[in-house]
Design goal:
Length: 304
């Protein structure tokens, strides 16, 4: 009878860690809204040119400064270029800069944080270097680097590729410090855990311990830093383009559209409203996604 009762007892379904994370993320309303808005923006800039086939550089002088219409859903600029086509083209460039610069800063920050946290002999040197970068005035540094190397890279790689690589490199090497400090703190705690001590006691190489045990356990702050890094890169690129030090005029980004439309804000305010709204929605949605990931990945906040 006891055996029959044991066999008939319902088995509790075991949930994995990622299932708990997804359930917690799904209950975060702001994160879900952020995912929806960000997915819409990404799909719009990727698929929009196939639906709205106007060349963003096509000049129609007779339709310059045109208001919103069926032909030009967002109007035109002072040269007759379609604003919607420019917004879609600029969005692809801005998002490409954001993702690429985020990956560069994430690799640098994660590498420095793991090395500083796990190897005590490197901690002082790497953290003092991180503090040095944090103490630098970033915007003047960005302006100086771009002014020094912009013409050289333009001549060597072309105006588009050269400026793209320069801006990605400049943003990446000036935004890794926060990730490094966060990852270092996590590594300092993880390297004292029992499973790391056990792996070290059986003679596992330090490189394998870092790859198999340390890095997988610091993925939570890395993922949050990745989402916030995209927003930071987009804002920085927009600021540089707004100052006239980003991409050339025939290579539109959202920041460049803001810069070009600032002088015509009294004539066609929409030229500033639309790119500004695109930047704001993208940054807000990514920030909400980062908040949702942070809450979902933290066991204390999700109640487990």
């Amino acid at each position: 009878m006891a055996e029959q009762t044991y066999q008939d007892a319902p088995l509790h379904e075991h949930r994995s860690l990622w299932m708990d994370v997804w359930l917690a993320f799904r209950n975060h309303t702001g994160a879900l809204v952020g995912v929806g808005v960000f997915a819409f923006i990404v799909l719009a800039v990727l698929l929009g040119p196939f639906l709205h086939g106007i060349d963003p550089q096509y000049l129609d002088i007779q339709a310059r400064n045109a208001p919103v219409s069926w032909t030009h859903p967002l109007g035109t600029d002072n040269l007759g270029r379609d604003m919607l086509a420019q917004m879609l083209a600029g969005g692809r460039i801005s998002l490409a800069v954001g993702f690429t610069a985020m990956l560069l800063s994430l690799v640098l920050g994660t590498g420095v944080g793991v090395l500083a946290g796990y190897f005590k002999r490197l901690d002082g040197l790497l953290m003092r270097s991180t503090d040095l970068f944090l103490a630098l005035p970033l915007l003047p540094l960005l302006l100086v680097i771009i002014m020094l190397f912009r013409d050289t890279l333009r001549a060597a790689l072309g105006p588009e590729t050269g400026i793209f690589l320069l801006i990605v490199f400049v943003i990446g090497i000036t935004s890794w410090m926060q990730t490094a400090r966060i990852v270092r703190g996590e590594v300092l705690a993880i390297k004292e855990r029992e499973f790391v001590t056990a792996a070290r006691s059986i003679g596992t190489r330090e490189r394998r311990i870092v790859a198999r045990h340390v890095l997988p356990n610091v993925m939570s702050p890395i993922m949050v830093s990745a989402t916030l890094g995209i927003a930071n890169a987009i804002i920085t690129e927009s600021a540089l383009s707004f100052l006239g030090l980003g991409f050339p005029p025939d290579f539109p980004t959202w920041g460049r559209l803001l810069f070009d439309g600032a002088n015509f804000i009294s004539i066609t305010p929409a030229r500033v409203i639309w790119p500004g709204l695109a930047i704001s929605l993208t940054v807000l949605s990514v920030n909400y996604i980062g908040d949702g990931l942070r809450d979902a990945l933290d066991p204390r906040l999700r109640g487990t």
